[in-house]
Amino acid sequence: MKYQAIIFDLFGTLVDIFSRREYESIVAEMASHLKIPYDDFYEIWMQLANKRTTGVFRNSEEHIEYICRELKVKVSASQIEAARRARFDYVARALKPRKDAIETLTQLQSDGFKIGLISNCSTEPPLIWPDTPFAPFFDVTIFSSTAGMLKPDQRLFRMAIEQLKVTPQQCLYIGDGSSEELGAAANVGMTPVLIRAPYEDGADALRPDDSKEVFTGTCISSLKEVLNLVK
Q1: Is the dihedral of CA 23, 50, 213, 13 positive or negative?
Q2: The domain that contains 105 carries what CATH number?
């Protein structure tokens, strides 16, 4: 067996990427709970993206409180809890397996592959993860908000390799190409694979525009195609 481990990205790979319309709707709901003008709240919310995904804020409450202080808005504990709950429930809904995800993971696990995850994300997914259908299939999960660093930092990829107890050459990395993750995976010796679901190419997809890499490797459009890559 050439490959012994498969490492997945989360958003845009195992689950659909955020809908721009729904994402902005939830941010608006949070702002409403806090009685803050949407534009003011949204601007600072987006500015804090990197801090949100590297664990600078230990939890959502700290994050929301920080924004309120920056905007010099006094809020109650119940307002903060309402805003936190709106965000938490939204992320929980977003962690719904996309088509073929569980079927593919079941087959990979049955075939003896080690399975890992590397995700750039806020503090909510690590809390929600144990209650998702994904949890039983993963040997290693690395979230940026708990690791304190973001892809494409190669330390995240090396961390996954070490914890899975495999060599880089024994790993496939499956991701949607955001955050220059595919180049980082290749640079540590993994075989990167780009996954792009055609239905996510619309304007409603909240896909990061930070990837500057041009990928010329293997591309797939559905998770079940991973099974053909490891035969």
Answers
A1: negative
A2: 3.40.50.1000
What pTM did the predictor assign?
A: 0.94
Phi/psi for 80 (5° steps) reads: -60, -45
- How confident is residue 203, by pLDDT bands cut at 50, 70 and 90? low
Q: Do both 120 and 35 map to the same domain?
A: no
CB burial string 143-171: b at 16+ within 10 A, e below:
bbbebebbbbbeebbebbbeebebebebb
| Tens digit of each residue's pLDDT (9 = 90 or more) over 95-115 | 999 999 999 999 999 999 999
Residue in 156, 135, 130 with CA at minimum distance from that of residue 53: 156
Number of domains in the chain: 2
Which distant-in-sequence residues (6+ apart) come within 8 Å of 43 by Cβ?
A: none
49 and 162 belong to one structural domain = no
Q: Are residues 31 and 52 in the same domain?
A: yes
